[in-house]
Amino acid sequence: MHAGRSLPLRRRTLTVGAACAALLAAGVCAPSIxxxxxxxxxxxxxxxxxxxxxxxxxxxxxxSVKVKVxxxxxxxxxxxxxxxxxxxxxxxxxxxxxxxxxxxGPPPGRSSMAQGSGFFVSxxxxxxxxxxxxxxxxxxxxxxxxxxxxxxxxxxxxxxTDLALLKVDGSGxxxxxxxxxxxxxxxxxxxxxxxxxxxGTVTAGIVSARGRDIGAxxxxxxxxxxxxxNHGNSGGPTFNAQGEVVGVNTAIFSPSGGSVGIGFAIxxxxxxxxxxxxxxxxxxxxxxxxxxxxxxxxxxxxxxxLKSAGxxxxxxxxxxxxxxxxxxxxxxxxxxxxxxxxxxxxEFARRIAxxxxxxxxxxxxxxxxxxxxVGVTLGTMPAEGAAKTDPRPxxxxxxxxxxxxxxxxxxxxDGVVIAEVEPDSPAADGGLKPGDVILEVRGKxxxxxxxxxxxxxxxxxxxxxxxxxxxxxxxxxxxxxxPTRAS
Length: 487
Known about the structure:
The chain is about 15% helix and about 30% strand. By secondary structure, it is of the alpha+beta class.
């Protein structure tokens, strides 16, 4: 049998003749059983026999990026000089253990060379790479596929997506285009870059997953690929089988520092949007609605009377924000943006940011169990800030002892302050901590510990399994549900 060729499968049907049918009742003749289904027919191989023709076309557009980094002073919040990812992020562990020397910045007062990858996106010399490759760069140079080295200028960076746009003088450079459609899970991909400073290297694999959120930033939208990528591949392109860019290689997740088949590439549609803004303005502006959001858990859904968990729960609305002007309220659950379903807060934040400032969006909400719609004109995302509270000595509220809470009045401010949280209590398991301020219970504002206790008793009487709190902490406002049985 020739490779990639399948032979047709014929369905064989045996029938019962008239004479046999007449004798069937007497048990003299038994019919043959007709096949109920056929196996899935094989098809021709999905992958090409060789990627060589594609590689020959795209490799001239891929460059090696070399960066000289000098850090004269220590950063008190980041003494190692590495990218500031949260400790829970795989990228945090990656850079702490496996970053190239100097890739995230040298020790204070020293210089080092970092190496990465990039690729031309226009004939006039614009190059895409990762922000962490050129972060704190004092000098950037690129090496073409023919070995020629040139000085490059950083046009703009976007730390939230870890992208940067460079520019070299001249024109007529070979460049690659972004794919018009996102790849599917299982599609072939090709990674080209400069691993370990070896120069142009090609690896291949498939898309393992899409839409990965690895905790690197608020707008994570990574492709997970198993095409091997290693140190120095950062900033290089991920191609589809047609030679179009579908992503930018950014990180790996590995216990050893080498590729174990789990790599992450920034999705091409995200890269294209960021690059267009960096090229036009040198900065990226995003849509802003002015709310704090969180996931809708099963307990929260039960407390709000929702049929199922999903969407983005509005934990707080900033004063004088677009959401405030549109009449949005804490406790609203956003279920769709411009008619497209929102499955979680991350997706909601990404969509609002991508729509951009001064655009009007239609939001589908559920408020107090009833569906409604509001129109919101988005603003421009401002600098981030966090609310602060003032934890002070407190008195005990005995009615809340089973939850593990000790509360006190907030001395003229809104809400009730949490003074103590018992270890291993329902309150501790729910994420409450001393200094947090309970603003609402069951959708009603509270100002005294007794009001919190009364609300819990009322929820128990109503047969609720859990009770919804709105809480303010140093990280902002959020909702959480605690079990009423613990009270």
